[in-house]
Write a structure and sequence with these properties.
The structure holds 2 protein chains of 2 kinds.
Chain A: E1 4-8, E2 24-30, H1 41-49, E3 54-62, H2 68-78, E4 82-87, H3 94-103, E5 111-115, H4 126-139, H5 143-146, E6 158-161, H6 165-176, E7 181-184, H7 207-220, E8 224-227, E9 230-238, E10 241-248, H8 263-267, E11 271-273, E12 282-284, E13 286-287, E14 299-300, H9 306-309, H10 317-321, E15 334-340, E16 342-345, E17 349-351, E18 368-370, H11 371-378, E19 392-396, E20 401-405, E21 415-422, H12 437-451, E22 456-461, H13 471-480, E23 484-487, E24 490-496, E25 499-506, E26 511-517, E27 519-524, E28 526-528, H14 532-539, E29 566-568, H15 578-598, H16 610-627
Helix pairs in contact in A: 1-4, 2-3, 4-16, 6-7, 6-15, 11-12, 12-13
Chain B: H1 9-13, H2 29-33, H3 45-53, H4 56-60, H5 64-67, H6 73-77, H7 84-99, H8 104-110, H9 112-137, H10 152-184, H11 192-197, H12 201-208, H13 219-246, H14 253-279, H15 283-286, H16 290-314, H17 318-342, H18 347-369
């Protein structure tokens, strides 16, 4: 063990030193080797030396091997009453210091931690933040307490942007905590992508069975104001009191009066691809995204509604037929002003546009499907009632063209190939791993094998990332079910005489394989939701190179952002699966409730200076010591 | 047999142009998009793996790099920017240096200064030697006739002597290539009959480069073919009809026509190649090794001085023609003596030889595998590839 003395009090303790004044030793060591870009430890050490009552500052280096007896000698020599361990993950070294304190006959409780990384020293002002954390530890004041200004008013209401599973979970938890939530959702219903899924991996639970009760709970919760078909237009103010302008698009159907009887939709003559069915089925211009939608009310898509497009010259038949007379085709949008304390961003993702990869023939060969299209195809509420069939060529009388469509009576595929990493881990598209595709691809293989036991199913993968709880077992299960798992990314999908061929290298046998398949599923990667850039600008939070919102600290604060009171949950922070999304959403709810409950919140790094925090820590000292 | 790994191999390959090999994560995309990658020669992923692992001897025994024409499809689609096409190109340079027993090739590929210096030195020696020789033979004022400065009969003898020396180098290197790829580590029984049966492939592939035409883009094949054919026509003319070419206006019209055609072919295709490399117009032109520039510049200079010499001769400017002749020879000799056995030109022997040997080996492999399951490809439905 090597102790490097950074600073020692030169003068011996004055004889007339205040009775009971503490003698404090600061030990700087870190458990995070190679953590570039962190605080300047030398500068932190010198700063700590100047804090009152600090008698000695020692540097132990990175990942030191601590000898409690030598430490005890050092403590006794310097007559220390309190030890501060400062660095990344200092708790790692706490046992050695606690032992040393008892060996030296001191109070073992007086070992304080200055946890740099855990309290977010990843940003630009890392050194200043680390100094503040060290100061709080020296004063014996929790950093979270000192870094919270006492005079900020914290509005208890929270705004949740995005009504997917992350937004739903966060909203429900905050509302269950008794605080007001405004949930803003861009589309006509909450539910997001999870509502489109058939099953979840690895448990093969029915996605809707988990999601629908939560959606209903959101719709009925007295503490949740569900603002569907709405968008956040602007946000201003400070942490704890944000003023939000929400643009409420004209739904043109009275949300409360509508009983979702479907008469309007039945008479509507317009047909457009359904977003909820990922475009493999059609909906009307007045529609409900899916039967379990929340709010359970129809809405008018102005882009396709004849009445809206012709300025009331044509059609309007739905309004005439509505038995509740709740359709107002001329309704205008509305603007809503909200006052909230915290903002939770849960805007989710989109899938990569598969037609960008022309070698897989998406959009050229009819039976090359994206993941979401297959989710809808295999879903019992999808256009084929959950039957996995290939597309059928049908004549569209309205458009007078032949079209490839899914028909419940269509032929079942004899073989299905699933291509992993479509646009992921690829410098030409997304360099990152989208994290969910391996597992959902395995789930697809299971669904194919379950519904079509005689069909051959192939998976082309680069590396199988089965990282979560139960995922490896799920992978083994899929292998046991007889899916052919080929290591190697498929390169091309071609077609000769309407028969598709897939080609790739089977790396483990060093051979190029090419064989016919009837259906190809593309495990497309995830990309940030459209207009995330706008939202990031509005909120003043940064995004990473790929467009995902940047958390305050990757390890220590994965839900916070650089802006106080603004939190991120779910895939909008980076690709993740449903369990992780839900966990992060719950964590975010706790953060919002923290502010709402105490009326105060942890300020952002940018808005509090070292002097502020130090002054506040000093003011808290007597109180905190009395409390002990 | 134990396999020896050379952990430094990847560093050794860097001067040959392979810089991004370590980026490869083996998705197999390159092997699958390559029009030439077929059992039993699946590349470029496998050679990249050998390179990452430092399997030097295994790489020396590979024919795969010579089966690649660098159409660039693999590099364009590579998800890691690992440049598999350029890696194959670098491996060809490295293999050339391995086949060459003199070590000169290695020196040239690793340092362009050495290559350029050697070329200049040979050029200088050639120029001085021919000037002295010419002065002792005739007069600088006479281009042809009895008193010619550089009489074609003497040059003819020199050409043949040079050709035999070069052939000796090239053939000994080719023999090493055969030994590395077919004999050293191979336990595969190869019958003499299969060597004979595929022998036709050598001239056929040499003259047509027909495999190159299987790449999606045909342009590079045509340019390459025109350069090679022009060169060969010129070579034949010089080796067999030098006297006719050098004689006065009464040149046989066939020699004349072929000569002009070959000259145009040489100039146009080298300029096209240079332009592509300058513009980096496609994946295969993005990374140019110094040896590529030297080679193209040398050929272009040889062709241009040849043309100039021809014009001056026709214009009866005998002194200028003789001087140009010296310059021309000073360029031709290093091009032949250094580029053919030791640098880029050598691939005109290695590539057809590799295609031929690959066929011989594939035949032998098929014979030894007879009775086993055929490879999964074509219209075999639902072949179990790997079930667990």
């Amino acid at each position: 063990m090597k102790l490097r003395v950074v600073w020692d009090a030169t003068a011996p303790p004055a004889a007339d030193a205040t009775e009971g004044a503490m003698r404090i030793g600061v030990y700087i060591c870190t458990a995070n080797p190679g953590n570039g870009g962190g605080p300047n430890l030398e500068s932190v050490a010198l700063y700590a030396a100047n804090l009152p009552q600090v008698e000695t500052v020692r540097s132990l280096g990175v990942l030191p091997k601590l000898d409690p007896e030598a430490l005890a000698d050092d403590i006794a020599d310097n007559d220390l009453d309190r030890i501060v361990i400062a660095g990344d993950s200092p708790g790692f070294f706490k046992p050695a210091f606690t032992r040393a304190m008892s060996l030296a006959g001191r109070e073992p409780e007086e070992v304080r931690l200055a946890s740099f990384r855990e309290h977010g020293t990843g940003g630009e002002r890392a050194t200043e933040r680390a100094k503040a954390i060290a100061a709080c530890a020296v004063y014996g004041v929790p950093f979270t307490l000192a870094a919270r200004p006492s005079d900020t008013k914290w509005t208890s209401a929270a705004l949740v942007i995005g009504g997917g599973i992350a937004g739903i979970q966060a909203a429900l938890e905050i509302a269950d905590g008794g605080k007001k939530v405004y949930l803003v959702e861009r589309t006509g219903t909450i539910g997001g992508h999870m509502a489109m899924f058939d099953k979840t991996f690895p448990t093969l639970d029915c996605a809707a069975c988990i999601l629908t009760p939560k959606m209903v709970a959101v719709g009925q919760h007295e503490m949740i104001d569900l603002l569907s078909y709405s968008e956040v237009e602007s946000i201003s103010g400070l942490p704890g009191s944000y003023r939000v302008t929400v643009l409420r698009h004209a739904r043109r159907v009275d949300e409360d009066a509508c009983v979702a009887c479907s008469i309007c939709s039945d008479v509507c003559p317009v047909r457009v691809p359904s977003e909820f069915d990922a475009g493999i089925a059609e909906r009307k211009a007045i529609y409900i995204p899916f039967p379990q939608a929340v709010p359970n009310a129809y809405l008018v898509d102005e882009a396709s509604c004849t009445w809206v497009q012709t300025n009331g010259q044509k059609c309007g038949v739905c309004a005439k037929k509505c038995p509740k007379e709740c359709i107002d085709l001329d309704a205008r949008g509305d603007v809503l002003q909200l006052e909230v304390g915290s903002v939770i961003v849960a805007t989710g993702y989109e899938t990569l546009d598969a037609s960008r990869l022309d070698r897989y023939g998406y959009g050229v060969h009819p039976n090359v499907l994206t993941a979401l299209e297959f989710e809808r195809l295999t879903n019992a509420s999808g256009p084929t009632g959950g039957k996995i069939v290939t597309k059928t060529l049908k004549h569209n009388k309205r458009k007078k063209v032949d079209e490839w469509v899914f028909d419940p009576e269509g032929e079942s595929p004899r073989s299905v190939a699933i291509i992993h990493c479509v646009g992921s881990r690829d410098t030409n598209y997304n360099a990152y791993c989208s994290r969910v595709c391996c597992m959902y691809s395995l789930k697809f293989a299971h669904l194919v094998k379950e519904k079509l036991p005689d069909a051959a199913c192939y998976e082309f993968y680069i590396d199988m990332r089965a990282f979560g709880k139960g995922y490896e077992a799920f992978f083994e299960r899929i292998q046991d079910e007889g899916t052919f798992i080929i290591r190697g990314r498929s390169a091309t999908v071609t077609a000769h005489d309407e028969q598709m061929f897939i080609k790739g290298e089977d790396i483990l046998s060093d051979s190029v394989v090419e064989f016919p398949v009837d259906m190809v599923l593309l495990a497309v990667g995830l990309v940030p939701a459209e207009r995330s850039d706008e939202l990031a600008r509005m909120l003043g939070i940064p995004r990473d190179d790929y467009g995902w919102f940047t958390e305050a600290d990757y390890n220590g604060d994965p839900t916070g952002t650089e802006r106080g009171g603004v939190f991120v949950a779910g895939v909008c922070q980076g690709p993740k699966d449903i369990p992780d999304t839900v966990a992060q959403a719950s964590a975010v709810a706790a953060r919002a409730l923290e502010g709402a409950m105490t009326g105060r919140g942890l300020q952002s790094l940018a808005s509090l200076s070292l002097t502020d925090i130090e002054a506040r820590a000093r003011s808290l000292v007597p109180a905190s010591q009395e409390a002990e | 047999m134990a396999i020896r790994a050379n952990p430094k191999l990847i560093e050794e390959l860097e001067p040959y142009g392979a810089e991004d090999v370590m980026k490869c994560y083996h998705c197999g995309n390159c092997s699958a998009v390559c029009p030439f990658s077929k059992d039993p020669y699946v590349f470029p992923r496998k050679p990249m793996r050998y390179l990452q692992m430092g399997l030097e001897e295994k790489l020396e025994g590979q024919l795969d790099p010579w089966l690649c024409y660098y159409c660039g499809e693999c590099s364009d689609q590579c998800p890691r920017d690992a440049e598999p096409g350029e890696t194959m190109m670098s491996l060809r340079r490295w293999l050339t240096s391995r086949y060459d027993w003199t070590g000169i090739s290695r020196l040239f590929y690793r340092s362009w200064r050495w290559e350029l210096g050697a070329i200049l030195l040979v050029a200088l020696i050639t120029a001085i030697a021919f000037t002295l020789f010419g002065a002792s033979q005739g007069s600088l004022n006479d281009y042809d006739g009895a008193n010619a400065f550089l009489p074609s009969s003497a040059i003819h003898i020199f050409d043949w002597a040079l050709a035999l020396v070069l052939l000796a180098f090239l053939l000994s290197n080719a023999a090493r290539m055969w030994y590395f790829t077919m004999r050293r580590d191979s336990t595969l029984p190869v019958s003499v009959g299969s060597y004979v049966a595929s022998l036709w492939m050598l001239p056929a592939h040499f003259l047509t480069q027909i495999r190159y035409s299987q790449c999606e883009r045909k342009g590079p094949w045509l340019t390459h073919l025109s350069l090679m054919l022009s060169y060969c026509v010129m070579l034949v003319l010089i080796m067999f009809f030098l006297a006719e070419m050098a004689s006065g206006p009464s040149v046989d019209w066939r020699v004349h026509a072929l000569g002009y055609l070959a000259t145009v072919g040489l100039v146009v295709s080298t300029i096209l190649f240079l332009r592509n490399r300058l513009k980096k117009s496609a994946a295969q032109y993005r990374h140019s090794h110094e040896s590529d520039w030297i080679f193209l510049a040398l050929i272009l200079a040889v062709a241009l001085t040849g043309i100039l010499q021809h014009i001056l001769h026709r214009a009866d400017l005998d002194v200028a023609a003789n001087v140009t002749y010296i310059v021309h020879l000073a360029l031709v000799v290093p091009m032949l003596a250094l580029e053919v056995p030791f640098s880029k030109w050598s691939h005109l022997a290695y590539r057809p030889l590799a295609i031929y040997l690959a066929q011989v080996r594939a035949t032998a492999l098929a014979r030894s595998h007879r009775g086993e399951e055929p490879a999964h490809r074509g219209a075999e439905p639902a072949a179990p590839l790997r079930t667990v």
